[in-house]
Write a structure and sequence with these properties.
It is found in: Cytoplasm; Endosome membrane; Golgi apparatus, trans-Golgi network membrane; Prevacuolar compartment membrane. It is a single chain. The chain has 790 residues and is an all-alpha fold. Among the domains are: 121 residues; 144 residues; 130 residues, Serine Threonine Protein Phosphatase 5, Tetratricopeptide repeat (Alpha Horseshoe), CATH 1.25.40. The chain is built from 39 helices and no strands.
Amino acid sequence: MISDGVEDEEKWLAAAITGLQQNSFYMHRALDSNNLRDALKYSAQMLSELRTSRLSPHKYYELYMRAFDELRKLEMFFKEETRRGCSIIDLYELVQHAGNILPRLYLLCTVGSVYIKSKEAPAKDVLKDLVEMCRGIQHPVRGLFLRSYLSQISRDKLPDIGSEYEGDADTVTDAVEFVLQNFTEMNKLWVRMQHQGPAREKERREKERSELRDLVGKNLHVLSQIEGVDLDMYRDTVLPRILEQVVNCKDELAQYYLMDCVIQVFPDEYHLQTLEILLSACPQLQPSVDIKTVLSQLMERLSNYAASSTEVLPEFFQVEAFAKLNNAIGKVIEAQVDMPIAGAVTLYSSLLTFTLHVHPDRLDYVDQILGACVKKLSGKGKLDDSRATKQIVALLSAPLEKYNDIETALKLSNYPRVMEHLDDGTNKVMAGVIIQSIIKNRTHISTADKVEALFELIKGLIKDSDEKLHDEIDEEDFNEEQNSVARLIQMLYNDDPEEMLKIICTVRKYILTGGPKRLPFTVPPLIFNSLKLVRRLQSQEENAAGEEVAPTPKKIFPILNQTIEALSAVPVPELALRLYLQCAEAANDCDLEPVAYEFFTQAYILYEEEISDSRAQVTAVHLIIGTLQRMNVFGVENRDTLTHKATGYSAKLLKKPDQCRAVYACSHLFWVDDSDSIKDGERVLLCLKRALRIANAAQQMSNATRGSSGSVTLFIEILNKYLYFFEKGNSEISVSVIQGLIELITTEMHSENMTPDPAADAFFASTLRYIQFQKQKEGALGEKYEPIKA
């Protein structure tokens, strides 16, 4: 049925266009022969095609545009006629003899245009006559297009200030009156369209009406272009007349569109000065009108106007714009009980943006808006409407973007109360926005109270509110979120050690509730931030008894120990071991032997009980050796115990090459350059000999399993260790031992079973070059190396 209707309409349009073209052909022939009577006759017949009621507005527009083009040519002919002596007044009378009213009025408007240009009568009289005559067409579509034609031909002929058609003192009033009258009649016709035809086609008619809205809106654009419409005239005449028509038409589509038009076409300063009048119309509109969008656009325009120049801000203060907008929004939300949450939040968001532009210093206004939002959201719980949550994120992000400072947002008492209404997913998004703002602006949160307030805001990232939700989180997103929290923890700082310790304890309280998956991300930055504080305090001696409240490293280390212990729930023994060793090193620098020994003990327990992976064991052993080598706080007994354990771990590694490297690394535990008390050459030699035996065993195993000797890299590495200690003055390392090792490596490299290894060859060649280089040096070092034959 629909396709049949469309086909019929196409046929009717084709027939109308054919009739129009046929008559326009004869009209052109008459124009060419200067036959006025025939020209009027055929032009009237051509325009009769516009009397059709069969076409939809879309198709009718197509027909109208063809007629419009022909009328422009006819208008030029009329101008020529008047130049040739034809009386324009007679012409104006003559066209009124056309048989049908619609062609008659189109012709009358066309001649009227020429009549105004001739200036034989005041423009205001001709325009008044035309706008009154057009009342003769009451069919909505035909009437709209006729009046649109009148608007089109008259827009450059209005009696405006500075115009060539300007008349007496009240000339602008006449121009405004003409446009307003045409607008009013067009709006009535446009609204009446909804009642044409059966009720079942209402949706189609509304669509058609929507397509025609610009015909009505053009009148408001024309009004805004009239030079003589100053603020007083706009306030006293133009705006009240437009709003009267908008309110009285009681049509949802017309009210929304026309309010939007008013906001878009008239200047910002006019809106500001007439804010009360404009806002008073809002509660009078139909409940179904999307008033939130209208008000949001108004506030957006005013915000941009305020942002354009600081010179205009006094105008905003003068008219009390905030109070008026706030009051209007309150009334609209109260009047529209069924307004969705998203709509209300959109209004508050727009008002907040406006306030931040106009009153950036008034935090009480910002908090007032957030408070109103909380009131609207009260009893709603967590929102599941994605549009509403998106608007809340925009609302909460606005102060951050404006002030570039989370500390300002923390002063807003209603800020966290609004955040409580976000669902868990959006809460995380908002927490991420807050953290990114802090990182981007390098904001220092410097007191424990502020840190507490901040962590309350971002608790969506710090702990799970819903167990099930955790499984649904994308691993990559989760890691990114937690890394941003880690960066935030690193940024917390206060010069006062006491306050800094409070901050650390506050953060610790929050992150320990984060669950096992978060701790590996959040514990390390907290430990390192705490160690920064320890480093600051390490030179500080124990204070007198009266000052025991002051933080000292001794008081901080137990907190760190307990914090690292929390990682056992994850478990991540490798990470915990690294942190224990970091703390041991800090305790060493603070000269706290018992504390350092305790951290080492914890690291050893972890190694023995938790770390079973062979690769992880190798890494852990080298970390232990490296840290222990740097320790200078231990007495002989404690150091021997820890060293003995470390060498034991080294010898028990799974793979022989790993064993060998760990054992020769242990040699450094018995020879520390900076400490005269730790220079045990004999035990160094024992380690290196043991490493040689392990390297030899590794080679034999390779021979047995693969049928070829393994690489001599281990021997070359051990040779380098011998050279290191030989150079450092270890008397146990003799020239003969080094010489023997060089010869052993040379022999192995030339054996038949040896697998070629270019890297080992290059390493050995480099070592021999080093020996030659040292031999060439003058003084004791050169003499020392001289006996070695490389």
